[in-house]
Each structure stands twice: as structure tokens, then as C-alpha cells.
Amino acid sequence: MASANNNLSGYDASKVPNGQNYRIAIVVAEWNISITDNLYQGARKTLLDHNVQSENIVKVDVPGSFELIYGASKVQRQGFDAVIAIGSIIQGETRHFEFIANAVSQGIKDLNLNGKAPVIFCVLTDDNIEQSKARSGGEMGNKGIEAAVTALRMIAL
Ligand code: RBF
Predict the structure, then answer these.
(1) What is the position in ligand 1's atom list of the atom closest to the CA of 29?
(2) Phi-psi region of 79 (alpha: psi -120 to 50; beta: other; left: phi over 0)
(3) Residue 96 within a domain
(4) Which atom of ligand 1 is nearest to the CA of 90?
(5) Is 96 a catalytic residue?
């Protein structure tokens, strides 16, 4: 079916581990909040769909994507089974984009190397807001859904 490829967040639910006993923290950047909130909603709903208990999903807000590193590091040390880091960085007229995007990807990579719980990278790095909308519940799916599936799979690894 041609339209099947439009929603990149489609997945085989039968292959996703049962989240019944998992505790997951979701760290959400407030910059571009209309985008990050959609990503968060997609991630949360997907975790609930896979039996993660609502009281075992903890949301932590941070000001911007740069703060995802500290926020994720802090909750990673609090006994969660996985952490999902959600942000939206949009290209502007200056070079902030590359500095923030590089720092966040490197910082989250370091947490994965050194910490106990996996930290899932759900940070959009787009050229414009249209691309961000397309990936947070638009025609390119919702990357929050994919991040939640990734978290469940990494916990069960
Ligand atoms: N944070 C984001 O999450 N997305 C952005 O697109 C974004 N753009 C920024 C642009 C500039 C010029 C600056 C100074 C900050 C931006 N931030 C953005 C905020 C950044 O992640 C962080 O919260 C602040 O730099 C404070 O450490």
C-alpha cells in the first residue's frame, strides 16, 4: 500500500517487549514546545500501549535541548530503566544549531557509554519548522513513538 510508507512510525507491536515492570523517565526541552510536546505525547501513549504503568512514566522539563544532557544524566542515576530525551533544534541564521546539536548528540552518546540505563535520542534537528511538524505527528510520523519503542527494546536487550 503506497500510503504505508508515509507513516514512518508504523511498527510491529507484537515484537515490542512488554513494559509492565519498566520505569521510564522522559526529559523534555521547552524550546519549540509545540513540537516537543507532540513528541512527548507520542512517546507516552506508546509506552502506555505497551503496558508501562502511568505512575512509572516520569516527565522532567528542562529549558532547552542543551539542558537535556544534564537532565538525562540526573535521572539516569535515579534508577530508571531507560531515559528518553526529547528536543527540537531548528536551524536559524547563526551557528547555534550546530553547537547545540553536536553537544546534545555527543552528551547523550557519553551517557550511553558511561551510564547504567540507555538514553534514547529523540532530538529533531531540522532546517525549518515544517520539517519538525512533519516528524512530530505529521506526514513523516511521530519520532516520539519511535523513541518509546526504542526504549522498550533497549531495556529488554
Ligand atoms: N534550544 C532548543 O532546544 N532548540 C533550539 O532551536 C534552540 N535555539 C537556540 C538559539 C540560540 C541563539 C540560543 C542562544 C539558544 C537556543 N536554544 C535552543 C536553547 C539552548 O538549548 C539552551 O537552552 C540555552 O542556550 C541555555 O543553555
Answers:
(1) 3
(2) left
(3) yes
(4) 6
(5) yes
> Of 59, 96, 109, 116, which one is the catalytic site residue?
96
- Listed as ranges, residues in the chain with pLDDT below 70 are 1-8
Q: Looking at residue 109, what is its pLDDT?
A: 98
The whole domain housing 39 covers 21-156
- The answer to whether residue 6 sits within a structural domain is no
Distance of alpha carbon 49 from alpha carbon 124, whole angstroms = 23
pLDDT digit string (tens) for 66-105? Answer: 999 999 999 999 999 999 999 999 998 889 999 999 999 9
**64 occurs within a structural domain:** yes
Its pTM surpasses 0.85: yes
Answer whether 67 contacts ligand 1 (Cβ < 6 A).
yes
- Is residue 116 domain-resident? yes
The answer to whether 29 touches 125, Cβ cutoff 8 Å, is no
Q: Beta strand pairing status for 24-29 and 57-62?
A: parallel
Task: Choose the residue to mutate in 100, 104, 105, 136 for probing ligand 1, maximizing ligand atoms within 8 Å of C-beta.
Answer: 100
